[in-house]
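Question:
Write out your own:
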Amino acid sequence: MKSSFVTAACALGFVGVALGAFGAHALASVVTANRLETWATAVDYHLVHTLVILALSGVFRGLHSVWLHRALYAFIAGIFVFSGSLYALVITDMGILGAITPVGGVLLLLGWVCAFAASLELAGND
């Protein structure tokens, strides 16, 4: 597994924690409780999938799998699209941005499907 995915996970983790703190401290008095919940959901998915990227990079370290690479790229894209659209929705209060969020959700689901395929592929190499 290339260290670039570990680097990406570290950067995503830093940004996720920073955005979580920003939401808890700077946004709490500026947005509605509903929007704050939306922000928290974005942070939760952001950080959970960041940990997944880090875990998969560690578990499959030194192994090559096209499916694993697809999974990691899908998770990264999913974080940007799913969480990013929710962050933008809260900041701009433009409800139309919520229409983009399901695309990010599909990317995250695709990441899980690809990770499953990678696990089957790599288990066959045992």
Summary: Residues 3-123 form one domain.
